[in-house]
Automatic annotation (TrEMBL):
<feature type="domain" description="ABC-type glycine betaine transport system substrate-binding">
    <location>
        <begin position="42"/>
        <end position="288"/>
    </location>
</feature>
<keyword id="KW-0472">Membrane</keyword>
<protein>
    <submittedName>
        <fullName>Glycine betaine ABC transporter substrate-binding protein</fullName>
    </submittedName>
</protein>
<dbReference type="InterPro" id="IPR007210">
    <property type="entry name" value="ABC_Gly_betaine_transp_sub-bd"/>
</dbReference>
<keyword id="KW-0813">Transport</keyword>
<dbReference type="Pfam" id="PF04069">
    <property type="entry name" value="OpuAC"/>
</dbReference>
<keyword id="KW-1003">Cell membrane</keyword>
Length: 297
């Protein structure tokens, strides 16, 4: 994820209203027991290129296609048009609704035309993090250690809600005047993080949980005693009105879907680190060692 403001998160470069349809790949790995009732029909899952949304969408694409459904995963570059599509019925499901803060503005606008099917993670949070070998523990101590970090906080996209929260809430609250929040992209931030850790150099980055970086690296979140980044949120499955009536078995399964921080981090790490971003291959490999039925128990 991302962020707590209207733009929603670590979205890719924002092209308002633009979306890209992805052709479904091969069905799931052979021999995987998804435990879902057989069905039929077309289901369109909307998502934005946030790590947890990408892997959760592919996970459910594989599960639903193996159960007889035709699934289209449709990527959006901004969260607003996605909520519009969901509320109008052009999309069926969105697996990455952060509540009660990040996407609450959209729920206020479109919520009466949506179904909230369930919560699948209860520990989503915006963070500012450093490697564990860095002797700084709190945002309140960041400014006093500006020189240690070269006067830089390595951020993600300028449009991300996380960026807004750090720039307009954390920085003024803690008087962080000697460090500059530098924005570029999530990919660039992760590249810098990887290089710094390989060299055991100090670095401070904007991040969020759950994220695969916590599985790959030894990181610690800087304490935020003034709660400038908000409290922990939940990640929810949202659907268009009428979806649970038309696809009752699918809606029931989505309503029971749950992943722990550890499960999600291991899945993301396998996809984005070990499989180099090959989402289908990474998810398929993860399913070979992790029972999907445990996620919908």
């Amino acid at each position: 994820m991302k962020g707590a403001f209207a733009t929603g998160a670590t979205a890719s470069i924002a092209l308002a209203g633009c979306s890209v349809e992805q052709e479904p790949g091969d069905a799931a790995a052979e021999g995987v027991d998804f435990g879902l009732p057989e069905g039929e029909g077309e289901i369109v899952i909307g998502y934005i290129n946030w790590d947890e949304a990408v892997v959760a969408t592919e996970l459910w694409r594989q599960a639903l296609e193996a159960s007889g459904y035709t699934v289209t995963a449709q990527e959006f570059t901004e969260v607003g048009p996605l909520f519009e599509g969901l509320s109008s019925g052009d999309l069926d499901v969105f697996l990455d609704g952060w509540l009660p803060i990040t996407h609450q503005t959209y729920m206020d606008t479109y919520g009466d035309r949506l179904e909230q099917l369930g919560t699948w993670n209860e520990n989503a949070a915006l963070t500012v993090a450093v490697p564990t070998y860095v002797d700084v523990d709190s945002l309140a101590d960041l400014n006093a250690n500006a020189e240690l970090f070269g006067g830089r906080i390595v951020g993600i996209e300028a449009s991300a809600g996380l960026t807004e929260a750090v720039q307009h809430s954390a920085i003024p609250t803690y008087g962080i005047s000697d460090l500059t929040l530098e924005t570029s992209s999530t990919t660039a931030m992760l590249t810098e993080l990887d290089s710094a850790i390989a060299a055991e150099e100090p670095i401070v980055v904007t991040l969020w949980q759950p994220h695969w970086a916590y599985a790959k690296y030894d990181l610690k979140n800087l304490a935020d005693p003034e709660a400038t980044l908000g409290e922990a949120e939940t990640i929810n499955v949202l659907a268009r009105t009428g979806f649970s009536e038309e696809f009752a078995d699918v809606a029931e399964a989505l309503g029971t879907f749950a992943m722990s921080d550890e499960q999600l981090a291991s899945l993301e790490n396998l996809v984005f680190s070990e499989h180099g971003g090959d989402v289908q291959a990474g998810v398929t490999a993860w399913l070979a060692d992790n029972a999907f039925t445990d996620l919908v128990a």
